[in-house]
Amino acid sequence: MDQNKLNTKRIFSGIQPSGVLHLGNYLGAISQFVKLQGDTNSECIFCIVDLHAITVPQDPKILREKILELAALYLACGIDPTKSTLFVQSSRPEHSELAWILNCFTNMGELNRMTQFKEKSENKSNYSVGLFDYPVLMAADILLYQTTHVPVGEDQKQHIEITRDLCERMNNKYNGLFTLPEPMINKQTARIMSLDDPNNKMSKSSPSPSSYIGLTDSPEIIREKIKRAVTDSGSEIKSGEDKPAISNLLNIFAAVTDREIADIEKDFEGNGYGEFKDALAQAVISKLAPIQEKYNKLIAGKDELRKILADGSAKIAPIAQKTLSEVKKSVGLG
Ligand code: ATP
Ligand code: LTN
Hints:
Helix 3 (60-76) packs across helix 12 (273-299), helix 4 (94-103) crosses helix 7 (129-144) and helix 4 runs parallel beside helix 13. The relative contact order is 0.15. This protein has two domains: 9-184 and 302-331, HUPs (Rossmann fold, 3-Layer(aba) Sandwich), CATH 3.40.50; 209-296, Tyrosyl-Transfer RNA Synthetase. The protein is built from 13 helices and five strands. By secondary structure, the protein is mostly helical. Bound molecules: adenosine-5'-triphosphate and L-tryptophanamide. Adenosine-5'-triphosphate is lined by residues 15-16, 19, 24-25, 28-29, 152-153, 155-156, 189-192, 201-205.
């Protein structure tokens, strides 16, 4: 079979091994990945994007640990290496090589418009060229595997748009090198907001740990963080545009229990924030307990984790090598 021209869906996504994986990452990204790997018409490839992580300073020892921790978390959340491929981005040199070639077809103005770059470079006296170039590396990740669908949270939409632009530009110039990828964004969980500021997304790089629920947070910490979460004026447990904080908490409640927001609102009619927050904390704790139990077992077996990642990298090597070799030939490099 020609691995680079498929009739089935090919799903690709990545997560950075930086900071603490939080409920936003789980609901916006990983839980979608787990659902997709059950579909027999989909081939799923999930990546630990360590080259993206070094766009900001990292301690080498901690980064090495974070890579294995993220592998363990992917598996604990339900990624099954017999159904999906899990690998580390830097283990496949084709990512950097394709990114360089795509750099030479990307305009400075296009990257200057990226809102994530603007946010991440804002108020910093210095930042790396890598941080600016981040979307081109992401485009290389996606196009290298002839990806058809990219499940991500809302914040990555603009990066998928630039990937599509680059794909069409290269395809027009060199006659159909790449598959045009589509974003897959789950509306309800696309943007889980911070617990202490419902106008900003829950984020790994937030300086305040009380803004997010970490996937490995203990029940006590989860209760404490939810108790402290900001609320809106009024006391009704009702979602609405003028109530961003309670809407976010209701959204999280619905996502972790697989229920409708309207149903949950009904359950708490006449109740105050106290009862609602206790129940929400319990629901989050119950959702994360089996993940944490699996995580603790997996992280104790680092050699097994390394083997899963090495096997994943070897399995997808032929796809990456074939795409890169076609690109190099088209451009005149071999
Ligand atoms: P940072 O905030 O430091 O940039 P991050 O928390 O966004 O990091 P990533 O590794 O960049 O983490 O994201 C992994 C995946 O999780 C991406 O698909 C991203 O869109 C998704 N994601 C991140 N934050 C949220 C959120 N608050 N709600 C929904 N999805 C999210
Ligand atoms: N930029 C993404 C992570 C990422 C990614 C990708 C997601 C890197 N390469 C390819 C989907 C497909 C982020 O920061 N969330």
